[in-house]
Amino acid sequence: MNPMRWMLATCCDTMPRWRCAGQRVLLAAVCAGLPVGVWAQAPVALLSTAEAERFHLLTQELRCVVCQNENLADSTAPLAQDLKREIREQMAAGRSDADIKAFLVARYGDFITYRPPVRVGTLLLWGGPLLFVAVAAGVWRRNRSVPAGPVVPVEKSMEDNA
């Protein structure tokens, strides 16, 4: 016996007739819509081994704008899925990695790359850690070079605490 018929037969044996008919309609609608859902999730084009490696390396270099600490290759956010599809489409159109990165930087800013370019706008980003280390070293050196002075014992009596 067909598994679908068995499920419907057992369903209809235990439920009122009107409810079973409603479940049949619902099951038919779900089965009819299933191929559409699978088709909508299909990739744009099948990638060859070299293209798949290029795609993986490119998505490793790009940051997910939703997750922020995760690259596109590892992210499962809906926006990351859209970006991956966009990258596949651009790869199929014959664009280079530099062109794809330039497109995404124009759209989302330098934040999308893990290695933003050195420009006036990103100087603090690149020089900030060095500036922090220099200031910390200066403070440490100043504190070490200042003499503490002689230690003077403090005389306290029990009456001062009362």
DSSP strand count: 0
The largest pleated sheet is described as: none
Instruction: Give the overall average pLDDT.
Output: 77
Q: What's the level 1 CATH class of the largest domain?
A: Mainly Alpha
State the share of residues found in helices, binned by percent: 55-70%
Q: What is the N-to-C succession of helices and strands?
A: HHHHHHH
Low-confidence stretches: 36-44
Computed over alpha carbons, the radius of gyration is: 33 Å
Let me know the CATH homologous superfamily of the largest domain.
Cytochrome C biogenesis protein
The CATH architecture designation of the largest domain is Orthogonal Bundle
Estimate the global geometry from the Cα principal axes.
elongated
**The number of domains:** 2
Number of helical elements: 7
Indicate the CATH topology of the largest domain. Helicase, Ruva Protein, domain 3
Structural class by sheet pairing and helices? mainly alpha
Q: What is the straight-line distance between the termini?
A: 96 Å
> Into which percentage range does the β-strand content fall?
under 5%
